[in-house]
Amino acid sequence: MTIAYISLGSNMGDKVESLRQAVELLHQNSSIEVTKVSSIYDTDPVGYEDQDVFMNLVVEVETTLSSEALLIVCQAIEQQLKRVRIIRWGPRTMDLDIILYGNEVIHTDNLIVPHPRMHERAFVLVPLAEIAPNVVQPVENTSITELLAQVGAEGVRLFSKITHVDKFIQSDE
Ligand code: GSY
Questions:
Q1: Ligand 1 within 6 A of 95 CB?
Q2: Domain range for residue 155?
Q3: Which atom of ligand 1 approaches the CA of 156 most closely?
Q4: Number of domains observed in the structure of the chain
Q5: pLDDT, tens digit, for every residue of 83-102?
């Protein structure tokens, strides 16, 4: 069993509903349990800036899947939610990025973990610090709290406080 963290983002259509559906689809997989979900944050676009704001959150999962198999599940969920991405860094209905997989450092043709830009992205670090403040990023060898202190939280605003995975999936929050 491995504990992994996945960053989810959406900036097209009903963003909150897309996030909810993506978390539900992860949780419905028999090899994945979503154990924590961060609050939802309203975030300024990073990279290609001339696009709508994003909604971002991070989930903690416990999984028996390999990192490659988890990536395939994430990509299938993106497809299922009809991910649209016309421009690199541009608008998309749903993006799922594996940001940490245990404390493994992975470099394959398909997957780099820890996510190579996670330590410089406030839209990843703010929600991640909410659910995993003491986890150490194994390449930087630095805790999430320390990485966030280095980067700051500019451009990231709390949109909706989430406290329970089940309530969020059932849309009771
Ligand atoms: O890599 C995730 C997609 N993405 C995002 C995002 O999720 N949130 C924000 N705020 N900016 C982003 N730029 C890209 S690319």
A1: yes
A2: 2-169
A3: 10
A4: 1
A5: 666 666 666 688 999 999 99
- 92 is a catalytic site residue: yes
Strand-pair partners of 123: none
CB of 51 within 8 A of CB of 31?
A: no
CATH number reported for the structural domain that contains residue 99 in this entry: 3.30.70.560
Tokens, residue 110: 């398909």
- Tens digits of per-residue pLDDT, 114-170? 999 999 999 999 999 999 999 999 999 999 999 999 999 999 999 999 989 999 998
Place of tokens 């009809």: 82
Side chain identity at 24, as an amino acid letter? E
List the catalytic residue out of 14, 83, 109, 166.
Answer: 83
CA of 45 to the centre of ligand 1 (A): 6
Instruction: Give the closest residue (by CA) to ligand 1 atom 10.
Output: 45
